[in-house]
Specification:
This protein has helices spanning 11-23, 34-42, 61-70, 88-96, 109-122, 152-164, 181-191, 209-217, 234-237, 253-265, 291-296, 302-308, 325-340, 348-356, 362-376, 403-406, 410-428, 433-440, 444-454, and strands spanning 3-7, 27-31, 49-53, 79-83, 101-104, 171-175, 199-203, 218-219, 231-232, 242-246, 267-268, 277-278, 282-287, 311-315, 345-346, 381-382. By secondary structure, it is α/β, with parallel strands linked by helices. A 5-stranded parallel sheet has the order 2-1-3-4-5, with helices on both faces. Strands 7-10-13-6-14 form a 5-stranded parallel sheet. The radius of gyration is 26 Å and the shape is globular. The modification 4-aspartylphosphate is found at residue 53. It comes from Ralstonia chuxiongensis.
Length: 457
Amino acid sequence: MATILIVDDDDAFREGLAETLTDLGHRVVEAATGQAALQMLGDGQPADCVFLDFRLPDLNGLDVLERLGEEPALKAIPVVMLTAYASCDNTIGAMRLGAFEHLTKPVGRRDIAVLLERVFSANQPRALSSHAGTPFLDESETDRPQLLGISTAMRTVQKQLGRAAMTDSTVLITGETGTGKEVAARVLHASSNRRAGPFVAVNCAAIPHDLLESELFGHRKGAFTGATTDRVGRLVAANGGTLLLDEVGDMPTAMQAKLLRTLQERHVTPLGTNRAIPIDLRVVAATHRDLDTMVAAGQFRQDLHYRLNVVALHLPPLRERVADIVPLAEYFLASAVRATGRPMHLCAEAQRMLVEHAWHGNVRELKNAMERVCSLAPGPTITADDLSFLRRPTAAQERPVPSDLVELPLAEAVERVERAVITHALALANGNRADAARRLGISRQSLYTKMAALGLS
């Protein structure tokens, strides 16, 4: 039995969670405000775990988490952040401050049981308290970089970014072109202790190979033909901050060897001089290439791969995070609308077209599509006709549709598909409707309505 503190101002949610935890065999204490929770813990109230809501009437949940981290006697308590409005900022912020997990309400009983098993197994052999045996997209407008997404895949990436931001470890970000690798790197920098320093990005694929060495390491006047002045390299320019080596898989092999030595020794020697300049920076590498395959083919140095692949982050393609497509489209549309001043929104058929599109260009293609339609749509409602430029499927892009569905009336075909998809999601969620709704990218109430209409119990 463990003692668990619930901090939430929603009486109904707090009582429901307390009942679940009690049924699971734990002792529960409750607080309705952040100050009350801090006071209880400061006065010696034992707690083996804290469930902490993000939105509280007095302190922000992140403020409470930060204060807990400042107290040596309290910082070891695992904290589970809860929110009904998960965003890039609050997810990454929670993980950066040391939260054990960040969950979106509502949370099912099975999920809580599995989570607590993780919490207590991760914190062994820490003893339980001495009283253990007794009776998207709701993203605010901001100039900060944001890695947007509400899908399970993106929430995982956001949590990994938050944890990585707590360290200075080198990070390797992989993913297809257009998935947001540079955005992820900027979010990591903005969330880290180096955020006051510079963020310097180098696209290794865009710079000619014969100029890349000078670009990275700098040179002295006269070092080579055309070197008419001294030049500070990007590695020195990033000192105290973060250096992004974008498309590092396109770096020439000879340059890889010099970069490896520099990363190992943390010194830069500009061309035309023997004077080494010490550097203190965090390196983030990004690539759309499969570096493991390149290493096996002798196209990328294995030792450099080891040096870069300390913390690995993979950004999934947009087609694997369908729940993010419409929220992202609405976000990009709202950004474009702010520039034009014309209020616009997507009709249901337009949303369906967006979800069904293959998005080979990923998030970048979606952003460009929303900017285009905002400029060309004649009215405030974006229709399927306004998105007709997306209707260019090739044989490889077309998704096969079973012949028995093609022959049905549209309403009956849609009903069959909805029934199959909902049943599959419920099976994956072991009957947990809240979890199934999250997998489907719809609200729990919408799931209940669809189940009732389809006659699913």
